[in-house]
Amino acid sequence: MKRCILSLSLIITIISMTSYQTIKRQAIERSADIIIYGGTSAAVTAAVQARRSGKSVIIVSPDIHLGGLSAGGLGFTDLGNKEVIGGLSREFYQRVYKHYENEKSWNWQKRAAFGNRGQGVGATDSAARAMWIFEPHVAEGIFEAFIKENNIQLFRDQWLDRASGVKMDKGRIVSIKTLDGSVFKGKVFIDATYEGDLMAAAKVSYHVGREANSKYNEKWNGVQEGVFHHFHHFTSDIDPYKIPGNPTSGLLPRISANPPGKNGEGDNKLQAYCYRMCLTNNPANRVPFSRPAGYDSLQYELLVRVFNAGWSELFKKFDKIPNLKTDVNNQGPFSTDNIGMNYDYPDASYERRKAIIKEHEIYQKGWLYFIATDARIPKQLQDTFNTWGLSADEFKDNGNWPHQLYVREARRMVGEHVVTEHDIIGDSVIEESVGMGSYTMDSHHTQRFVTSRGFVQNEGDIGVHPPKPYAISYYAIVPKERECTNLIVPVCVSSSHITYGSIRMEPVFMILGQSAAAAASLAIDEKVNVQQVPYQKLKALLIKQQQRLTFEPPAKGHQK
After folding, report:
1. Closest Cα partner for 488 from 470, 473, 471, 504?
2. Residue 310, phi-psi category: left (phi > 0), alpha (psi -120 to 50), beta (remainder)
3. Mean pLDDT on 483-489
4. How far apart are CA 387 and CA 314, in angstroms?
């Protein structure tokens, strides 16, 4: 165990030392049975499954750091029912538990002080125990270990040429080319990005934004003005104008002048993005919040008015993870969610995306600095806030700031099967399960506007619990056969906006990544299109790999 921990630490150190150096590469040409585009958790599990299936595989990653959000700050895992998390996804969380079994992993606090939070300590077999709460660098180390142990070819910082980099022949992807001219040829391709760039470049159908409820006969899609499920809305009447009571003075920043639309209507708006921050109140590991370049205190004027109205839930989502750290998520009406600033992100150019990402970083760092320093913040709250800071031992090569923006939703494929509310709530029966979901149908706010009464309000926050875990159809991760016959999409899956809000959890992405690679391997063996993979053979293979395809409530008292 000691050698393992040192190995993971060394890997992260090497990455941190070299990751952002500008290296002029020579274009290369490589081939493998399966080409995976992306650096997310789903990309890693797909690659591991490909190797375990006896296939050659290459990860072509635009990211330098592996693991996406799982290694990018989201250490307080959104779970739903953990009994339906199987296969490599569960193995990841079991490895987290193994890591924290070692007392040397607890460098800032005693293991006993942290207790059993997020741990499956009830399992009789210690090898089956999982831990669902972890530090970002621990997650990244586990993903890197997966790569090393399975001898997976990995090319980092390789960006798909979205304009002309996908070569197709008779509905099949032959190769992909990256911006430096490198070419990767394969038999089956997997798009494991949050954005769905390979899928889009292959001309596969997709949707961006919210469908109208009428599209799939749903209830919770589309505009949802007046619906508040998570309390991230303005509960008091807050004036939206620069000079309170004077509409001619203009709106404060980050409030739309447009009406929200009619309930149930579709639009092109996206739920808000943010960074999941790893903070600490340990003075020995704390980096104080600093003023970001481009800081403008006016951007946070609404927050002053929220505090003045008596709001006091600032620290509610400072969720504890090991070693005196937190995973901090959005909480309240004006928080880390950067509402309304991401609408063009999915289809934007790389340069435009960089600008959006930077704007989100400045906004969120400014939010921190504003609370820490502005004289109008209640003193007791501000004093407590200033006991927190960024964790000095996380994201060392990026100023202790997460390297992954939380892209909650971007493109969503329109494939052979579209997952809708009817699948989630149990109105339909899915016979071709390749994994299960169980989390709330969840959407963060999509817009901030002025109500008919003249006050500011947020819209789009939804949280509807499925009655039980649900199956995800294989045909939701493959395109329509007439569009592409050798591409599988385990992240930007074919689903409506509101059902994607349940599917889009990191454990599920890892599950679907593994299932995608298992299907790709079968398609190669059977010499068939991915849409024609014999499901019974796929099912048998997935069950052998410990995937959970159906749900049976565990016996009373049994917990893993």
Report:
1. 473
2. left
3. 98
4. 14
User: Which DSSP state fits 176?
Assistant: E
DSSP string, 98-143: HHHHSGGG-SSS-HHHHTTTTB-TT-SSGGG--B-B--HHHHHHHH
Residue 130 near residue 560, CB atoms below 8 Å = yes
Percent over 90 (pLDDT), the chain: 89
Rounding to the nearest 10 degrees, give the CA dihedral for residues 77, 79, 82, 85.
Answer: -80
- Band of residue 125 on the pLDDT scale cut at 50, 70, 90: low
Q: Which residue has the tokens 């009619």?
A: 262
Any residues with CB less than 8 A from the CB of 340 and at least 6 apart, and which? 254, 256, 269, 272, 446, 447, 448
3-class SS of residue 407:
coil
Percentage with pLDDT > 70 across the chain: 93
Say what the pLDDT of residue 13 is: 47
- Residue 374: what pLDDT? 98
Instruction: Please name the residue that has the structure tokens 């150190």.
Output: 13
Residue 130 tokens read as 């999982």
Hey, which residues does 185 pair with through a beta bridge? 31, 175
pLDDT number for residue 140: 98
Half-sphere exposure of 285 (CA within 13 A, CB side): 17
Report d(CA 130, CA 137) in Å as an integer. 17
The CA distance from 450 to 56, in Å, is: 55
Given a cut of 70, whether residue 121 has pLDDT beyond it is no
Q: Is the CB of residue 344 less than 8 Å from the CB of residue 352?
A: yes
CA distance 408 to 498: 12
Task: Indicate the SS3 state at residue 217.
Answer: coil
Q: Which two tokens stand for residue 369?
A: 């600095």
Give the Cα separation of 539 and 196 in Å (integer): 26
pTM flag (> 0.90): yes
**What's the helix, strand, coil split of the chain in %, to 5?**
30, 20, 50
Of the candidates 264, 225, 413, 253, the one whose C-alpha atom is nearest the C-alpha of residue 341 is: 253
What is the per-residue pLDDT across 372-406, written as a single tens digit (0 to 9) for each?
999 999 999 999 999 999 999 999 999 999 999 99
Task: State the pLDDT at residue 11.
Answer: 47
Q: Which structure tokens are listed for 176?
A: 């992909």
Identify the three-state secondary structure at position 145: helix
Whether residue 492 is predicted with pLDDT greater than 80 in this model: the reply is yes
Chain-centre distance of CA 156, in angstroms? 19
